[in-house]
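step=encode ok
step=design start
structure_in=
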């Protein structure tokens, strides 16, 4: 076993050997990135029991989340532009440089951009990209913060109502939306339970409409959460949202009554079956690799027939299992073959493209418009329909049904180029106004 105590090594020897170890590290890193690129291309992580390359690198190779993300990003970029492998191995580009360049590389600008970034430091490359492409918006981030010691009261931001350790409120002040003016400060932590509770610092940019909804929720919860603690407000909101989504997706209702309604669709899975499978499988993927590793994915879960429907599978508790999207596709390729599944996906893509073409042609015939203009309008109408369906799905998740929900979803289209969350707010506001107009509210025997 090599010794890492180098106190006996002379100065000249240290300076002589260090560059060689740097070279070996570059070669090892480049080789690992090449391996990751090939594993990713072949999707070998699925057979090993992992839902994604990120999970494989973190759980299987025991890399940190950041190290895994950077190496996966570099691997995918180098797979598209193989010259990056040589640049990494020879030290013309470092790993950080490749990750910074990756989102901007195209076939047209790759050679010029790589050349401009050669032998540059991180700050120089950031300045280069800022001049050429502008500054990207900062992504949301979450990190664990130390618990507040009992002997050191937490510092409180009087503007935000957020108590944070190590003066994290100073970071929140950089975002104007985080200043929840007028909220009462939280009391200092004063119990062992509170001090031992894990706390996470969340940094995120929100829209004005989301900010307004947050303030409104704080006002509504004024009696139960007098200090407007954002943590408690978000906890209640997310707990309610998760319960509603589980009800919709998995039939996870408190009522265990078996539905008597039947469906003629062969792939239909009754609610009571979904509930039982959801609980039995522990709300995560059940795929187990040949080495015995069970997939830990709890996102993008799907109900999978143990025996495929095409081969007579039925939707019973024993005949259904939870699988993540990756392993659902993996199982399908194992049963029907990768070529067959790729052909089916291509057929679906061609069918969708043909449907769009038929819509464009019908517009051209009905309105006498040029085919290109008609196709553009048809595409816009299709996108608008998709946006309406997204809002309608969200409203249904919140319990809104019927023609009123559809009218609210259509009303949300009056907001041009607005994100989904803003259109959802508009739709909910529309429904709220309709409810107020359609009924009176009696309070203590009076009418308001």
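sequence_out=
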């Amino acid at each position: 076993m090599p010794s890492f105590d180098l106190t006996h090594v002379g100065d000249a020897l240290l300076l002589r050997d260090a560059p060689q170890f740097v070279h070996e590290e570059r070669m090892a890193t480049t080789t690992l990135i090449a391996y990751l690129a090939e594993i990713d291309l072949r999707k070998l992580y699925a057979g090993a029991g992992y839902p994604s390359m990120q999970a494989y690198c973190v759980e299987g190779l025991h890399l940190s989340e950041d190290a895994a993300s950077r190496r996966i990003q570099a691997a995918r970029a180098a797979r598209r532009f193989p010259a990056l492998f040589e640049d990494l191995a020879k030290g013309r580009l470092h790993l950080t440089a490749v990750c910074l360049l990756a989102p901007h590389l195209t076939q047209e600008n790759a050679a010029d951009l790589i050349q401009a970034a050669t032998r540059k430091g991180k700050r120089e490359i950031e300045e280069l990209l800022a001049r050429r492409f502008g500054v990207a918006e900062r992504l949301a981030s979450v990190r664990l913060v130390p618990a507040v010691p009992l002997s050191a009261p937490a510092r409180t931001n009087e503007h935000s109502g957020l108590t944070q350790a190590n003066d994290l409120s100073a970071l929140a002040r950089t975002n104007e939306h985080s200043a929840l003016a007028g909220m009462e400060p939280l009391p200092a932590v004063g119990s062992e339970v509170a001090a031992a509770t894990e706390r996470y610092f969340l940094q995120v940019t929100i829209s004005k409409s989301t900010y307004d909804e947050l303030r409104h929720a704080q006002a509504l919860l004024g009696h139960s959460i007098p200090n407007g603690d954002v943590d408690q407000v978000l906890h209640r909101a997310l707990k309610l949202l998760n319960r509603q989504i589980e009800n919709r997706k998995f039939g996870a209702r408190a009522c265990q009554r078996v539905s008597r309604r039947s469906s003629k669709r062969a792939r239909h899975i009754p609610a009571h079956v979904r509930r039982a499978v959801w609980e039995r499988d522990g709300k995560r993927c059940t795929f187990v690799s040949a080495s015995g590793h069970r997939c830990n994915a709890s996102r993008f879960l799907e109900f999978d027939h143990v025996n495929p429907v095409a081969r007579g599978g039925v939707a019973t508790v024993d005949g259904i299992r939870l699988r993540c999207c990756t392993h659902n596709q993996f199982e399908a390729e194992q049963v029907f073959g990768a070529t067959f599944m790729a052909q089916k996906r291509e057929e679906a893509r061609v069918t969708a493209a043909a449907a769009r073409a038929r819509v464009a042609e019908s517009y051209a015939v009905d309105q006498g418009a040029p085919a290109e203009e008609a196709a553009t309008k048809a595409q816009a109408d299709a996108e608008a329909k998709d946006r309406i369906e997204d809002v309608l799905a969200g409203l249904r998740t919140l319990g809104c049904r019927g023609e009123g929900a559809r009218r609210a979803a259509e009303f949300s289209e009056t907001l041009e180029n607005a994100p989904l969350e803003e259109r959802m707010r508009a739709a909910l506001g529309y429904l709220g106004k309709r409810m107020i107009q359609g009924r009176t509210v009696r309070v203590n025997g009076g009418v308001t």
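step=design ok
step=annotate ok -> The two ends are 82 Å apart (CA to CA).
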